[in-house]
Amino acid sequence: MKIAIAGAGAMGSRFGLMLHKAGNEVILIDKWTEHVNKIKEVGLKANFNGEDIVEQIPAFFPNELEGKVGSIDTVILFTKAMQLDDMLQSIKSILSKDTKVLCLLNGLGHEDTVKMYVSEENILLGNTMWTAGLTGPGEVKLFGNGEVELQNVYSSGKESGLEVVKVLSEAGLNAKYSENVKYSIWRKACVNGTLNGTCTILDSNIASFGASKAADEIVRTIINEFADVAEKEGIILDREEIVSHVKSTFDPNGVGKHYPSMHQDLIKNNRLTEIDYINGAVCRKGAKYNVSTPYCQFLTLLVHAKEEILTAK
Amino acid sequence: MKIAIAGAGAMGSRFGLMLHKAGNEVILIDKWTEHVNKIKEVGLKANFNGEDIVEQIPAFFPNELEGKVGSIDTVILFTKAMQLDDMLQSIKSILSKDTKVLCLLNGLGHEDTVKMYVSEENILLGNTMWTAGLTGPGEVKLFGNGEVELQNVYSSGKESGLEVVKVLSEAGLNAKYSENVKYSIWRKACVNGTLNGTCTILDSNIASFGASKAADEIVRTIINEFADVAEKEGIILDREEIVSHVKSTFDPNGVGKHYPSMHQDLIKNNRLTEIDYINGAVCRKGAKYNVSTPYCQFLTLLVHAKEEILTAK
């Protein structure tokens, strides 16, 4: 299958690498100059479950696709949320009327952006539990296990979705077709919505935030806001199960010792955050449905204030 | 007049020093060991508008008053909010049935604590715009100008209030009798309620917070919560005037370059904050009156989480 990874950061590189190793015709697309140039020069380097490997995968900047790359069977979107629209605009030339587009970004509401460029029957929404880390331009560290689920959310047929599931699974990515991928996307957004903004503002890892007496009320209130809004979109979240799931990340011997990705973006790397696509998205949806979301709104404002105070870019 | 300053930190030392210089019989009461011992040994040192002075003012720990100090005409309360109850308990022996008690603490709801120890006709509530800084045990820096207003809020007569006003004014403290001191207390609490918690959580001075695009909505929302609750206590705050007043502090060439006292307490000195007596007090009152105060509640929780993360004491 001809596959383009649009947004070849850590996670995009993982999917690209594994799909390439499985024999697919993969290209990587990214805007990061040093990263793309390094892959063009020496290939994508990876520490893949402890083994150092290099794979020669064609890499492109978005603006050099036209004329060089023909139409693609499946595009997998893995950009940062705020770069999605720009990326879709740039890769129009490789989207044919049959190209399937699988959106695997974190956060909520990306389908509204994808719909402006791709007809509904070609859109696949997905959610993944794989992890990946960038160790430098052109270099990733990939370990552990994961899975990915996806669904044709806008069409009755699921043939195209099943075909992509097959290709992903043959590459070892443990894919499955979901009958309710939006539930999984909301559930994951609840994890990010309770931990990312708070740990960023508090400059705390997950365990230290979780150990505070205030964490229970903060987590419950934010999850209730997410669930109130999700209900208006026909998705009935199991609030207690999600509260427990979030709390399971507090273990200091497990995930808890880590700082969420938003903390790494803003506090460590001085980059703008994805808060508008997590808590901010819940506020926008809440306003539309007349559902009150004050914790999400205040947290979004605090993270934006912190971005400005640190002059993040 | 025989005056006891209960809580002789920076502000208590200013009032004590100025009242002592004006010829009153002043004693200082505080729990901070090094501070009280230093004043006992060498007197209270002050840089007073640029001039270095030392005043011999009797200083006591709360537990050594009994037997040594007789009843007092006026007690001025200047403790940290969370020490008020403990202080009142400790100084019972110097409170006679005629002792006036002037409460000048920052924050809301302290009268409920004072009422447990002092009969209503002896309680004066006040609000001050003086500033002061501690430079070390037994040493303060006092510059600039200020004022203080007070009122007998629980009795129709105002004789005792006027008497205290006279003594304070004779000491240069620019006192006046107020007909609505609770308005001033709420207005000042709005300043602290919008700036203290936010600048602490964001690790920011007032100007940097104020310059962020998010500041306007945060300030307005918090002031609306304060005003909604104040209304239930019969105090109608001028919301727009208070928003403008808060924004006037954003000037980086004025107050804006400073960090609020709560930031100094928690981030600089690793001490517990007064958040429960500012935004937290609005939440408790809001719950009583069935008024929603989500921003105050979330901010209170975030500050408490930060206290725990930093293991503040």
UniProtKB/TrEMBL annotation, chains A, B:
GO biological process: pantothenate biosynthetic process
Domain Ketopantoate reductase N-terminal, first and last residues per copy: 3-152
Keywords associated with the record: NADP, Oxidoreductase, Pantothenate biosynthesis
Pathway: Cofactor biosynthesis; (R)-pantothenate biosynthesis; (R)-pantoate from 3-methyl-2-oxobutanoate: step 2/2
InterPro entries: 6-PGluconate_DH-like_C_sf, 6PGD_dom2, ApbA, Ketopantoate_reductase, KPA_reductase, KPR_N, NAD(P)-bd_dom_sf
Annotated Gene Ontology cellular component terms: cytoplasm
Gene3D superfamilies listed in its UniProt record: N-(1-d-carboxylethyl)-l-norvaline Dehydrogenase, domain 2, NAD(P)-binding Rossmann-like Domain
Catalyzed reactions per annotation: (R)-pantoate + NADP(+) = 2-dehydropantoate + NADPH + H(+)
Top EC group: oxidoreductase
Residues of the Ketopantoate reductase C-terminal domain: 180-307
EC number of this enzyme: 1.1.1.169
GO molecular function: 2-dehydropantoate 2-reductase activity; NADP binding
Family: Belongs to the ketopantoate reductase family.
Task performed by this protein: Catalyzes the NADPH-dependent reduction of ketopantoate into pantoic acid.
Protein name according to UniProt: 2-dehydropantoate 2-reductase
Source species of the chain: Clostridium chauvoei JF4335
